[in-house]
Design a protein that fits this description.
The complex is a heterodimer of chains A (116) and B (109).
Chain A (H helix, E strand, L loop, with lengths): L3 E4 L2 E4 L5 E7 L5 E7 L5 E7 L6 E2 L6 E5 L5 E5 L8 E8 L1 E2 L3 E2 L3 E2 L3 E5 L1
Parallel strand pairs in A: 2-13
Antiparallel strand pairs in A: 1-3, 3-8, 4-5, 4-9, 5-6, 7-8, 9-12, 9-13, 10-11
Chain B lengths: L3 E4 L2 E5 L4 E7 L5 E7 L5 E6 L3 E5 L2 E6 L4 E6 L8 E8 L7 E2 L3 E6 L1
Classes of the chains: A mainly beta (116), B mainly beta (109).
């Protein structure tokens, strides 16, 4: 049971390049998330998908797009990378319990992205 | 949006010591979780605890939802407890967890 799998683990981009971060979960979870982590700032939500077929913006969506490809997969795309997007990116998933509550959040191992 | 404040920001412990980490939040929540990020960056869910008290080995957590705070207790700390501890909360009808800035714990042998 792999849990939440992210690829790649490391990436270096030049300003203006594009790339897609891939995320897949095998826990049959309904909800999936993309966070970024910057030093001293905790984790900030970029986009989330409460269920298959829906996506919504989080705190810091500018410069990113997402696709919920199916129940298992949720990708994050940087169309034109900027140095301000240098960060560690985490994908996460949870099962939606009841009407409004997501129970435990499970994280992937992260992608360290540098934009030069 | 909701504000999540964790204290202290940094904590240095001698192996075997006990400690308490605090998380204050500014609004009513229906979900609160504690996470540990190890020195290699992996984030592990410790507790799902919107209210009440839970224990897992040497770790325990208490959330007093009416007073908008949660506490994480580490007893008999070990060097493997080092890392960053995050509190995260979800406001009703929100589907999103908002994270605090974390408490960095260093346990010295």
């Amino acid at each position: 049971n792999a849990g939440v799998t992210q690829t790649p683990k490391f990436q270096v981009l030049k300003t203006g390049q594009s790339m897609t971060l891939q995320c897949a979960q095998d826990m049959n979870h309904n909800s999936m998330y993309w966070y970024r982590q910057d030093p001293g700032m905790g984790l900030r939500l970029i986009y989330y998908s409460a269920s298959e077929g829906t996506t919504d913006k989080g705190e810091v969506p500018n410069g990113y797009n997402v696709s919920r490809l199916n129940k298992r997969e949720f990708s994050l795309r940087l169309e034109s990378a900027a140095p301000s997007q240098t960060s560690v990116y985490f994908c996460a998933s949870s099962i939606l319990q009841g009407a409004w509550t997501n129970e435990k959040l499970f994280f992937g191992s992260g992608t360290q992205l540098s934009v030069l | 949006g909701i504000q999540v404040e964790q204290s202290p920001p940094d904590l240095i412990l001698q192996e075997g010591a006990n400690s308490t980490l605090r998380c204050n939040f500014s609004d009513s929540v229906n979900n609160l979780q504690w996470f540990h990020q190890n020195p290699w960056g992996q984030l592990i869910n410790l507790f799902y605890i919107p209210s009440g008290t839970k224990q897992n080995g040497r770790l325990s957590a208490t959330t007093v939802a009416t007073e908008r705070y949660s506490l994480l207790y580490i007893s008999s700390s070990q060097t493997t407890d080092s890392g960053v501890y995050f509190c995260a909360v979800e406001v009703s009808n929100d589907y999103k967890l908002s994270f605090g800035a974390g408490t960095t714990v260093t346990v010295r042998a």
